[in-house]
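ok so I'm stuck.
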Amino acid sequence: MGKRFLRELKSGKLEINRTAVTADDKLDGKYIIRVTDPSLSAEDAALGYKQLAEVERAFKTMKSQLDLRPVHHRLDDRIRAHVLLCWLALVLVRIVETETSMTGDAVTDELDEIMLTRIPSIDGRVEIVSNLSEVQTKVLKKLQRNPPRRIRKLAPTPQNL
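replied:
not stuck anymore, here's the structure
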């Protein structure tokens, strides 16, 4: 609880400032926007701040989910290509989030749990995909992706050739 919600009594004890809490409660769910351009309408100011929040969210996504870091290019074509790839990756994350109604991190966490196990035997090697959870199945369906085959590969081992 912030300092403005607490007050110190003469005895040294702290007490909740109920007046400040009540005043703050009236602002819950509301934006207070201060602009320096008086010609800007309230709607335009609010839209500008919402767009700013979206841009900041996009940069946060690129730095966290996509693990993108600054890359130092010298040539204009490479700089443009790098920006285009970052933008495409961000668009893909947003499509996944829109289609699944989940965050990109949540989708990644869910799909990262799908395991591939390689089992060697005297007859060859089998690759088996773990059983999909209900959430994993729904995510793949919403993204219009077929689930991986349960048995992915049956191959002879090199010594059996």
